[in-house]
Design brief:
Helix content: over 70%
Radius of gyration: 29 Å
Distance between the termini: 67 Å
Order of helices and strands: HHHHHHHH
Largest sheet: none
Number of helices: 8
Length: 171
Amino acid sequence: MATPYAEALEPSATAPARARLQELLPKLVLAPSVLITLVFVYGFIVWTTYLSFTKSRGYPVHQLVGLLQYERVWAQPRWSVALHNLAVFGILYVVIFMFLGLLLAILLDQRIRQEGTLRAIFLYPMAISFIVTGTAWKWMLNPGLGIDVGLLGGKLLRRNGVLGCQRLVAG
């Protein structure tokens, strides 16, 4: 005689479907992100690489010319200057900031006298980015000076009531 508890322990007909769904669900959730990344990152990398082998300048011209564009760039005297600057500044940047990061990590791990000050200096750049972003948005959405007035003559956002609504602006 089967008890309700024993029936609950027996595998049901939906167990294989549930297991397959649990195996498939993470893939379904990640599929849009993977697809968008494939198109908008790797797709544009392939497109740019293709265009670099064509006769294109400002607009795409689908006439393949091989390495001609690269030869033109490599022949410029500024190319060697740019490579030299990239190497010097890249190496200096990596070395200096690796050293500073290691030094700050060591100091934050130690019990030093001015630990609170050091933590404030360390965390200040992270806090300031929010302040700068907020200020930039405030300037852009300013009804008298913002992006709508400068680029669009004050017609788009004001006509749609975004900048004129005090309830939206004041919070």
